[in-house]
User: What shape does this take?
Amino acid sequence: MQTIICEKLEDLVQVAEKLLRTFPDKRVFALHAEMGTGKTTFLQAVCRCLHSEGHATSPTFSIVNEYPLPGGEKMYHMDCYRLNSLREAEEAGLENYLYENRYCFVEWPEIIEELLPEDCVHVHIETENPYAGGRRIFRF
Assistant: This one.
């Protein structure tokens, strides 16, 4: 497991680049972190690295956001926070997104753990003093 310490928000792009370089063939990433640690902010950095034409926003209410990538590709950003059960996730069709061989980043993945591909990359994010812009610690 690698540990990366990110001192400033501006450095999130470098963390995202490192993640994507470390796992060049992986497409599904589960983001484990508490509320307010910057999961969506990190996804904005990932979008920049992948040259997305979209801007990452929290999909808390829509559950899945789709961002266009160059060449007609797309990336999915899921937020499972509001889901109450695995069955609810299955009824929403989340499994289809996970197995399309497209980039898929999942916030609050614990409720859909059984649906995640075996080769899913688990990214753990901690923040020291999150509401004062404290440093972020990434483990993957």
